[in-house]
Amino acid sequence: MSITDPVPATSAARQHIRAPELAGTDWLNTGDEQLRLAELRGKIVLLDFWTSGCINCQHVIGELRPIEEEFADVLVTIGVHSPKFTHEGEREAIAAAVERYGVAHPVLNDPDMTTWRQYAIKAWPTLVVVDPEGYIVHVAAGEGHGEALSRVVAELAEAHEAKGTLRRGDSPYVAGEAADTELRFPAKAVATAGGRLLVADTAGHGVAEFASDAETVVRRFGSGERGARDGAFDVASLAEPSGLTLLPEAVAQRVGYHLVVADTAGHTLRGVDLSNGAVTTVAGTGEQWRDGDDTGKALDVALTSPWDVCWWDEADGGPGGVVVAMAGNHTLGLFDPVEATVRRLAGTTTEGLRDGRADEAFLAQPSGLAVGRNRMWFVDAETSALRWIEGDGDGGHDVYTAVGTDLFHFGHRDGKAAHALLQHPQGVAVLPDGTVGVADTYNGAIRRYDPATGEVGTVASGLAEPAGLVVAGDGVFAVETGAHRLTPLDLSDADRVEGDALEVRRPATVLGSGAVQLNVVFTPPPGQKLDDRYGPSTRLEVSASPPELLLEGDGADSDLSRLIRLSGDVTEGVLQVVAQAASCDIDAEHPVCRVTRQDWGVPVRVERHGDGELSLVMSGNPGPAGA
């Protein structure tokens, strides 16, 4: 088996596969020094294949922090940034993401996905462990591997200490310098009735209140330190807050706070009393949702990367609550501050673009929300889509798409909505004239969609990753994330941009038309077993883009192996595979249990004599440490 094939970790350890050297265009967090695996012999090396816009990749950055701290003298983590979107491959964009998400290890820019191909990576994120002698000993795709990785590193350190092949100290990490600005990577903003602007200062871990001039900071909520502490405005701590919404005054009086904050990396919603500055947790346990029920008492339900929040009043066709863009599991949630409950409003947790009944629709990292004319507009970042949800007349809701097609096509193109293209939009607002403004983040542009004509135009360009829009009186501001500021917009003119249609480019897997055996390889982490106490411990869901690619085998089941049938009339497309597995500690009185989950979008080319089997590795179990 060559390194260009998917390699389960057990096979890697057994075959003693040498880790390929790292290749890319430049390095970050190394003082511009190039790193080579050969020079890191004696260290345990953890390669994190990521892309900055992927929410699962952002989760993994957080999961790795305690491991990096615990094994700081023996472990070198290297982020291999292999981009999905064109913008993500630019050095400036990667540098911004590294600072914004607090990445404290070296990062390699792999824009042509050279290292990605050398390691046969199939999905973001994927983690690869290289032992001190330069061999691959562990591979794990997806998130939720923190404890298993900690065990792997500990075993490797012990084994190679005994062999005399472990080297301590000498970290190659060199921290970059951050500019001194009032805001650090702000995400969203809202305007108060008095004309002030509240801004989510994401990398500043707080909320800043600006005077009506949008330049003078009046006060701040949050100490500026990453954390989850409730309390007074200068004591409370938040973690990468993003979305903001103000409650109606009558509701605010009943619940005791005025502002709801989507505390994204803290996986909670926070309430802020604007009269005294007190910050409290109003929804979420602080633990990231992985699986199971996401409905119940607000403080008892786990959330996952809430990215935006927006009050949707009954008078505007809504359910009378705070809609939550739950980017972490591709759903929309509903928080009722009066009843203090949370429930799912739309989405299935499968990442994709599918319209229809809200409970059957596919969403893809919803990142911005806005109410207008009896509907809730939202942008799905990963499908580069502008969409909306509205009532169906029978107490339910339906999801529709205005702009966007699937997970893999994007660009900057104006015109009729069916023809128009966006690139990873993160913000949306209903403008004073009733049109819909879109913060087209990775195009550095503000776009405008007219529901009456179905036309899309560009009203501003050359911005640094705009992630939010806010209407304040007669003015409209862009939250220019990459420039750390609020930027006033002139919406009087619109340009028509005819950019190229782009698509995600990854090596295609050649499969045969007809029957194909699909296998997801999952080995429980060291010291664990599959948890079947309450029924099947695994789940596999399969779909395709275009849907015609898949003749048989779509849908969900508990078996991680499935026979699918591909059409011979569709020459290329993408298989969308979602797998998860529950595992628990072996023979423990109080076992620790976890759910491992991974989404794949596998580009395939269908040929008559192509392969009849596709294997995907969700998690790996190394052989004996140092084998």
Helix content: 10-25%
What kind of sheet is the major sheet? 6 strands, mixed
Q: Give the overall shape, derived from the CA principal axes.
A: globular
Q: How much of the sequence is in beta strands?
A: 35-45%
- Radius of gyration based on Cα positions: 24 Å
Tell me how many strands there are. Answer: 44
Low-confidence stretches: 1-14, 621-627
Protein name: Thioredoxin-like domain-containing protein
Organism: Prauserella halophila
InterPro entries: 6-blade_b-propeller_TolB-like (IPR011042), NHL2_NHL_rpt_dom (IPR045302), NHL_repeat (IPR001258), Thioredoxin-like_fold (IPR012336), Thioredoxin-like_sf (IPR036249), Thioredoxin_domain (IPR013766)
NHL repeats: 422-452
Key words describing this protein structure:
627 residues; six-stranded mixed β-sheet; disordered C terminus
Characterization of this structure:
With 627 residues, the protein is mostly beta strands. The protein is built from six helices and 44 strands. The longest helix has 18 residues, at 146-163.
